[in-house]
């Protein structure tokens, strides 16, 4: 099991100009503490092919939690998604073996990290906002900036991997049940020269997305190990009559494998035509033995922040 947990690679498939037909099982699973554990299974596809990606609907599983075999009721939810019938907890060590008829099996493992510690959360409005009103004084729309602030309390003597996101949605003021409005992740930028190397060349040339910007910010505790560190997230908002805008701060601890998978997936997604001319395709990080894929754990703290409305 330790070999599974500590071994990972960037899997490179040689390409000589011919179409490659040998497909492999691909698994993606990022279980989160206190949330339903899902696994997505597909077959790999030749990277120049436009064929539909085949999903796997006939897999069987062997699952261990903290070294103990689990006889779970696993549900195939269709389109390659499986509900593993288990809700992981912080500190759980998960080992999963997937068997696919005529395709072999793959095995991967991960540990669900403890939740990160943050505090001193504040939500400050910029007083220089723009407001548009009717002649009768009714506010039509307002624009402004908000700063979300909090402090990371990083544990000492351990390597920690983090992810930061801010979700937002708009819903009607009269909707007391808050059933309307879908959450979407904001595109944010964090100007922090302690956590990130701010490369002005990339910012000027707009060559690629920097580590400190995007809808998902990833970083480690390498530069703040064992210390507290304050973060400020500037947001721009627009609020219309009868609507409220709501924010949710999400701060995650990631397993090492989860961090490197998300890091390489982000790099692959942000690779545009310009960088593609001069660089090799990004190889996604994998920790699955016998196939391609990732089993990486995460845990989160989530805070619902103040609402913004025209009132």
Care to give the gist of this entry?
By secondary structure, the protein is mainly beta. 10% of the residues lie in helices and 43% in strands. The protein contains four helices and 23 strands.
Structure description:
The chain has 311 residues and is mainly β. It has 4 helices and 23 strands. It has helices spanning 2-6, 200-205, 256-269, 273-278, and strands spanning 9-10, 25-29, 38-43, 60-65, 68-70, 75-78, 81-83, 93-100, 104-111, 118-125, 130-133, 139-153, 161-172, 184-185, 188-189, 213-214, 217-220, 228-240, 243-254, 285-286, 292-295, 298-304, 308-309. The strands form 6 sheets. Strands 13, 14, 17, 19, 22 and 23 form a 6-stranded antiparallel β-sheet that branches. It has a 5-stranded mixed β-sheet with strand order 6-7-3-2-21. Strands 5-4-8-9 form a 4-stranded antiparallel β-sheet, with no helix packed on it. A hairpin with a 5-residue loop joins strand 11 (130-133) and strand 12. It is globular, with a radius of gyration of 22 Å.
Outline the biggest β-sheet.
6 strands, antiparallel
Q: What is the ordering of alpha helices and beta strands?
A: HEEEEEEEEEEEEEEEHEEEEHHEEEE
How many β-strands, per DSSP?
Answer: 23
Overall mean pLDDT score?
81
Structural class: mainly beta
Percent strand: 35-45%
List segments where confidence is low: pLDDT < 50 over at least 5 consecutive residues. 1-7, 200-208, 272-279
Query: What is the count of DSSP helices, taking H or I runs of 4+ residues?
Result: 4
The coarse silhouette is: globular
End-to-end C-alpha gap? 57 Å
* Percent range of helical residues: under 10%
Radius of gyration: 22 Å
């Amino acid at each position: 099991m330790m070999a599974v947990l500590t071994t990972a690679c960037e899997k490179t498939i040689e390409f000589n100009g011919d179409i490659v037909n040998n497909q492999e099982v691909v698994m993606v699973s990022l279980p989160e503490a206190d949330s339903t554990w899902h696994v997505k299974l597909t077959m790999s596809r030749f990277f120049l092919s436009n064929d539909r990606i085949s999903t796997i609907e006939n897999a069987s599983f062997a699952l261990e939690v903290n070294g103990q075999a689990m006889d779970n009721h696993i549900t195939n939810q269709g389109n390659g998604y499986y509900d593993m019938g288990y809700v992981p907890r912080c500190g759980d060590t998960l080992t999963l073996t997937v068997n696919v008829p005529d395709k072999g099996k793959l095995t991967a493992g991960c540990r669900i990290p403890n939740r990160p510690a943050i505090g001193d959360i504040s939500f400050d409005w910029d007083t220089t906002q723009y407001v548009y009103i009717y002649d009768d004084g009714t506010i039509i729309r307002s624009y402004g900036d908000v700063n979300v602030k909090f402090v990371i309390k990083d544990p000492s003597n351990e390597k920690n991997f983090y992810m930061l996101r801010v979700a937002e949605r708009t819903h009607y003021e009269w909707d007391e049940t808050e059933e309307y409005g879908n959450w979407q992740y904001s595109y944010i930028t964090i100007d922090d020269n302690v956590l990130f190397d701010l490369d002005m060349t990339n910012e000027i040339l707009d060559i690629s997305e920097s580590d400190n910007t995007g809808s998902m910010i990833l970083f480690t505790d390498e530069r703040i190990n064992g210390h507290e560190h304050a973060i400020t997230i500037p947001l721009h908002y627009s609020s219309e009559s009868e609507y409220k805008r709501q924010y949710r701060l999400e701060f995650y601890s990631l397993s090492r494998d989860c961090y490197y998978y998300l890091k390489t997936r982000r790099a692959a997604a942000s690779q545009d035509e310009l960088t593609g001319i001069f660089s090799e395709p990004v190889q996604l990080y994998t920790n699955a033995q016998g196939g391609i894929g990732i089993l990486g754990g995460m845990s989160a703290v989530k805070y619902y922040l103040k609402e913004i409305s025209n009132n």
